[in-house]
């Protein structure tokens, strides 16, 4: 009996020792989905930010700090988006194991109207492939025994995204049936990739509410353009919308910018981009 128990314990310890899982902690869920496509069963990938909460208003908890400190690898977009994390990342031990996504090679980057870099770069699927490549290089260093599998996973992800890109481009081949607006200019990475362009934005800066003068201008703009659809986010102010719409009733579609409805499986990012395309299609063609 004792021999049997010792055998079981030995096998369990051997199995545990041979398992080389990589622990990755990201800030936002889209980064989690991209990393999960690379590591699959050889890693644990989590996100500290609730996908229904804006990164602009997030405060880290002690457990978030512990998770980032204990992870094998951390990922964030950069200080333009997750301002709450900037001081923490500057710590030498954390910085050394962190991928700052905005510094990833081969990204397609766009600026906002004021010249500031637009941080919503995960909405371009080509960028997602570049980010996945950076993840693959890092996890190969952490877990070289599974390097071949990580490279195959990246190849599979790239092929999957290429197919989705082709299908999405075909969906938006025809000109839209209506003009559309956005709550704020958060979608240009997806729009530029597939030849789309919104006609107006309610907010230029999601952190700054419009003045009375700007609200009057927005009302006049909406009256002139007559957008058939507005793309919103979970935290869009319905009170502000009612004020600027002034009785008009365009189709209101809430876009899941951070993938709250997606399971963090190996196909999660592909599902995320497909859902985003579905939202745009409902806005522009239905």
Which SSEs are present, and which pair or pack?
Blueprint: H1 2-18, E1 22-26, H2 29-39, E2 43-47, H3 62-70, E3 73-76, H4 86-89, H5 92-95, E4 98-100, H6 125-142, H7 147-171, E5 180-184, H8 188-193, E6 200-203, H9 212-225, E7 229-232, H10 238-245, E8 251-254, H11 268-285
Parallel strand pairs: 1-2, 1-3, 3-4, 5-6, 5-7, 7-8
Helix pairs in contact: 2-6, 6-7, 7-11
Explain the overall architecture:
- With 286 residues, the chain is of the alpha/beta class.
- 47% of the residues lie in helices and 12% in strands.
- It has a 4-stranded parallel sheet, sandwiched between helices. A 4-stranded parallel sheet has the order 6-5-7-8, sandwiched between helices.
- β1 (22-26), α2 (29-39) and β2 form a beta-alpha-beta unit.
- The longest helix has 25 residues, at 147-171.
- The radius of gyration is 22 Å and the shape is globular.
- It starts with a helix and ends with a helix.
- Residues 1-20 have low confidence and may be disordered.
């Amino acid at each position: 009996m004792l021999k049997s128990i010792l055998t079981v314990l030995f096998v369990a310890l051997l199995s545990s020792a041979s398992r080389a899982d990589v622990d990755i902690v990201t800030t936002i869920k889209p980064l989690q989905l991209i990393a999960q496509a690379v590591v699959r069963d050889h890693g644990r990938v989590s996100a500290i930010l609730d996908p229904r909460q804006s990164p602009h208003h997030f405060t880290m908890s002690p457990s978030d700090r512990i998770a980032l400190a204990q992870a094998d690898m951390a990922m964030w977009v950069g200080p333009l988006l997750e301002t709450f994390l900037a001081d923490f990342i500057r710590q030498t031990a954390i910085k050394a194991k962190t991928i700052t996504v905005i510094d990833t090679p081969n990204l397609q980057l766009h600026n906002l109207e004021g010249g500031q870099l637009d941080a919503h770069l995960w909405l371009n699927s080509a960028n997602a492939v570049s980010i996945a490549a950076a993840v693959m290089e890092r996890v190969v260093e952490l877990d070289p025994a599974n390097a071949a599998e990580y490279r195959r996973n990246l190849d599979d992800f790239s092929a999957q995204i290429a197919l989705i890109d082709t299908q999405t481009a075909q969906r938006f081949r025809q000109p839209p049936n209506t003009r559309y607006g956005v709550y704020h200019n958060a979608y240009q990475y997806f729009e530029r990739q597939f030849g789309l362009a919104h006609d107006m934005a309610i907010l230029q800066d999601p952190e700054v509410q419009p003045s009375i003068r700007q609200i009057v201008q927005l009302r006049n703009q909406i009256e002139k353009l007559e957008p058939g659809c507005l793309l919103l986010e979970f935290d869009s102010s319905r009170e502000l919308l009612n004020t600027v719409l002034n009785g008009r009733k365009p189709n209101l579609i809430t876009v899941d910018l951070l993938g709250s409805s997606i399971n963090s499986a190996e196909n999660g990012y592909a599902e995320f981009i497909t859902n985003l395309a579905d939202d745009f299609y409902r806005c522009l063609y239905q």
